[in-house]
Amino acid sequence: MKTVNYSEMNSDQTGVPRGARPFLPETNRLRLSIAPSGRMSNRGSFAANGLVKACTVVVQCYPAAFGPPDIQKGWIAVTIYANQTYDEERALYGSRDITVEECRFDGPADGESAFKECYDVRVKNSYFNLRYPFWHVIHLSIDGCEMTPLCRAALWYSEDIQIRNSKLHGIKALRECSGVTIEGSDICSTEFGWSVRGLRMTDSTAESEYFMMRSDHLHFKNVKMKGKYSFQYIEDSVFEDCEFDTKDAFWHAKNVLVKNCVVKGEYLAWYCENVTFENCTLIGTQPLCYCKGLKLIGCRMIDTDLAFERSEVEAEVLTPVESIKNPRTGQITVPAVGEIIMDDPLAMGRVIVTGKE
């Protein structure tokens, strides 16, 4: 068995520049097989002789870098798993400080809850075909993974989650989690994202029903979404440069900004409060009814009829609207309108037709 001095290894072997101080092992160190008793530091050494399956290494970290007090004293043990298949119940239950790469969670035992109650987990290029893998996990990184339709309810009750370049295709894939980042991923999951607090999603696609129900502090950018009943009861959220094809979106939403987006679907944003659409294209019948504090800034409306019924609204619309019905208060500026319906004695809103398209 050959012994290699860490400080003399090059970046191709370790994933960090020559002589760099290690913090956590990079996933490409899985190309080495490290003896179970091996210790590694910037001045230490470890043994290597082939393709790793599972091992434990000890690396030096910065004081109080993260985690509970027992790992804030300068050293942290990291267990690495690679090229394995697990199908048993709670396969890695309660594990701490682990890296998993190119593993499969699938098989005849049909076990559930592979990573339940784990802490500080990094998973890369792995396949999940079993239920409930990530429940009650704190500090979780998922990169290049696939969760199949049989991987139901994948991430529940977890905190500090980063998901990149992955497929989340099981029902109810994310629920009651906090501090979530999703990048470059594809979601096909009914009832995805319920009661999530703090989710940033970028450069991703989604297909769902009841998407992100009762969640708050969302920030979406360059997301394409198709479905029904999306973003209902959400609060304190921002959406930029997105395309949504979804009926009944943003019902009962509060304190939301939708900017530079295309939103297609009937019955948009009923009963919402303090929602602003800025430079958006809104498509579909009977939008924006029964709203409070509604604002439209430089928006286009296409195939929209019976808009703004009983809403408190300030709107600057750049395109003709088919019909506007009984706005409760405020002012709507529009270049042209096919019909203005004012048959409710409580409808006091003004419609100003500029004649300039």
Report on this model:
By secondary structure, the chain is mainly beta. It has one helix at 11-14, and strands at residues 2-5, 45-48, 54-60, 75-82, 85-86, 96-101, 104-105, 119-124, 127-128, 134-135, 138-143, 146-147, 155-156, 159-164, 167-168, 174-175, 178-183, 186-188, 197-209, 216-228, 235-240, 243-247, 254-259, 262-264, 273-278, 281-283, 294-302, 312-317, 321-325, 329-334, 337-341, 350-353. An eight-stranded parallel barrel has the order 20-21-23-25-27-26-24-22. The chain has a three-stranded parallel sheet with strand order 10-13-16, with no helix packed on it. A two-stranded antiparallel ribbon has the order 1-2. It is elongated and about 75 Å long. Residues 1-52, 60-67 and 69-73 have low confidence and may be disordered.
Oligomer: single chain
The low-confidence runs, each spanning 5 or more residues with pLDDT under 50, are 1-52, 60-67, 69-73
Q: How many helical elements?
A: 1
Strand percentage lies at over 45%
Distance between the termini: 78 Å
Q: Tell me the structural class.
A: mainly beta
Order of strands across the widest beta sheet?
20-21-23-25-27-26-24-22
Whole-number mean pLDDT: 85
Helix content: under 10%
Task: Label the overall shape.
Answer: elongated
Radius of gyration: 26 Å
Strand element count: 32
Largest sheet: 8 strands, parallel, barrel
